[in-house]
Amino acid sequence: MMPILAYEREPFLRSLETEVMRAGEERDRPFVVLADTILYPEGGGQPADRGWIAGVAVEDVQTVEGQVRHYLAGAPPTGRVRLELDWVRRFDHMQQHTGQHLLTAIAEQRFGWHTTVFHLGEQLSDIELDTPKITLEQLTDLEEAVAAEIRAARPVTARRVSPEDYAALPVRTRGLPEGLTGDIRLVEIAGIDLNTCGGTHVRSTAEIEGLKLLGTEGMRGGTRLFYVAGVRLRRLLAAHHERNAKLRQLVGTSDEELPAGVSAKLEQLKDAQRAARILEEGLAVESARALALGPEPILHAHWPERDLAFLQRVARELVRLAPERVALLMAGDEGQGAFVLCAGERATIDLAAAGRGVAEILGGRGGGSGRIFQGKAALSRRAEALAWLRTLG
Ligand SMILES: [Zn+2]
Questions:
Q1: How far, in Å, is the centroid of ligand 1 from the Cα of 185?
Q2: For residue range 212-260, what is the model confidence (pLDDT) as tens digits?
Q3: DSSP string spanning 239-288?
Q4: How far is the CA of 349 from the centre of ligand 1 (A)?
Q5: Which residues of 265-285 are buried (b: 16+ CB within 10 A; e: fewer)?
Q6: What's the pTM?
Q7: Tens digits of per-residue pLDDT, 28-37?
Q8: DSSP assignment of 309-374, as one string?
């Protein structure tokens, strides 16, 4: 049986002197097992802690074969070592996790919704409740009830009990890990909840600081409920506030008018794009008309500022206006451009073969059907491609 480790005995301990018991490697990742540890191994929905062992960063912590493995970013240290915990990250996890206990307990007592899954995310956390729908009114009600229990500063404590004592207690979750032997760890929110849990928690509901519900999502017949708690809640609000300030400046409206302001700008953008499309269409037609009058045996043009779609428009117009002509049209810059080779129905060239030849000379690739062959290529050898086309007669 695993000894009771420091992260469980003293969840507020931030550093510890201990000893490296074993060093190893697992799929090219070096790890160490310590005599004792303040780093929590992933489990019960709570992510693994981060920290440092003798200054070497710990990237992951997992329980493997009854031992806590600390996976390291560098060479494993030996002997006596100082272990340090990434406390800011851990305290955040304790706030989200204890918040989940409280949220789960109140959802169950007030609405009879059972929590089936807990997920502590990088941005938001969520629980899955076995109810197909939660109304806005219920959400408000639930959030207010959670807030009242945070204000009540109810003590949160953990203890281990024997399986016999456990059987006699009114514990919420009866689902125990398979093959569990020995004492069972219980976490209690005084007067609210008694639950089995191996995670780390704050000492009072007041240390959750605050908990905000952030909406729901239907999921496998249940409902996923998103929330944030604690310091993370204040950080999130600060980030939203900062983003809103930037948006206010960009759009030139108040917070309240932002959605309408952005919507109006998008409408303007759509109008501008429509106008640009009409202008480009006109430009393509005019370009085709001007080109069709050219005296060269192979017509050619290059528009550094335009793209393949423009070339296709010009080509469609050109094969209609000058069915006996062949044209090589290019767009974009020397490094990464596009080309179209087109031939009207009275032109004698084998378009597919000529197109492949041009693509090869330009070091690109392409394909086509009907009267237009198109491709992507660098354009630095376009003079060579044109000269080769002229030899096809
Ligand atoms: Zn817990």
A1: 10
A2: 999 999 988 899 999 999 999 999 999 999 999 999 999 999 989 999 9
A3: HHHHHHHHHHHHHTS-TTTHHHHHHHHHHHHHHHHHHHHHHHHHHHHHHH
A4: 76
A5: eeeeeeeeeeeeeeeeeeebb
A6: 0.75
A7: 999 999 999 9
A8: HHHHHHHHHHHHH-TT-EEEEEEE-SSSEEEEEEE-TT--S-HHHHHHHHHHHHT-EEEEETTEEE
Residue type, 261: G
Span 143-163, pLDDT tens digits: 999 999 999 999 999 999 988
Query: How many angstroms separate the alpha carbon of residue 96 from the centre of ligand 1?
Result: 10
- Whether residue 327 contacts residue 300, with contact meaning beta carbons closer than 8 Å, is answered with yes
Mean pLDDT for the stretch of residues 40-60: 95
Report the separation in Å between the CA atom of 90 and the middle of ligand 1, taken as the mean of its atom positions. 13
What tokens appear for 5 in the block?
Answer: 């480790």
Q: Where are the alpha helices (DSSP H) in the chain?
A: 6-9, 87-111, 136-151, 163-168, 231-251, 258-292, 308-321, 351-362, 382-391
Q: Which residues surround ligand 1, an ion (CB under 5 A)?
A: 197, 199
On average, the pLDDT of the chain sits at 93
Instruction: Evaluate if residue 133 carries a pLDDT over 70.
Output: yes
Please check whether residue 388 is in contact with residue 361, taking contact to mean a CB–CB distance below 8 angstroms.
yes
User: What's the gap in Å between 33 CA and the centre of ligand 1?
Assistant: 24
Give yes or no for a contact between 342 and 315, defined as CB atoms under 8 angstroms apart: yes
Spatial CA neighbour of 317 closest among 291, 339, 356:
291
Cα of 196 from ligand 1 centre, angstroms: 7
CA of 216 to the centre of ligand 1 (A): 22
**Two tokens at 168?**
């006699």
Average pLDDT, stretch 305-333?
Answer: 94
Distance 150 CA to ligand 1 centre (A): 16
- For residue 174, how far is its CA from the centre of ligand 1 (angstroms)? 14
